[in-house]
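Changelog-adjacent note: as of this version, every example in the card shows the full chain rather than a window. The one below runs 137 residues end to end.
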Amino acid sequence: CHTSGMLTPNGKEYAQKIPREELTHLILKLLQAWKEPLSHFNHHIEHHQELPDDSLIKAKQISNMVHELKTGVEKSMGIISNSLNGMASSEGTGLSISNEANMMSDSDFIHCFRRDSNKVQSYLKILKCRIMPENSC
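Full-length structure tokens:
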């Protein structure tokens, strides 16, 4: 996976020890790291004639969701991530994603995306519990 070099907490216990701002920044870095590969993937699958229209629509929805989630995290946490927004995704994350992500097979790509999506989901749950502890997390 192109994000394998990114240092992320291994397990919920470690993620809970990370300060809120750092965890939020990590979420933003993961989301930013997927911006270019998802765009490339969408472009790639548009040229597959054998794919049903539902798959194409779903791929675009996922890409839009990642963008909206990144924007929402930035706004809701009151963080303006100029360092990430002002750079290309490979610069913002310190990863060379153009080759590695674009050369993955579709199944590897989806596997990596699912892995990182699960991380983001877990980190967001931790942040939600910190912000709104009344939800009995």
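Structural remarks: The two ends are 31 Å apart (CA to CA).
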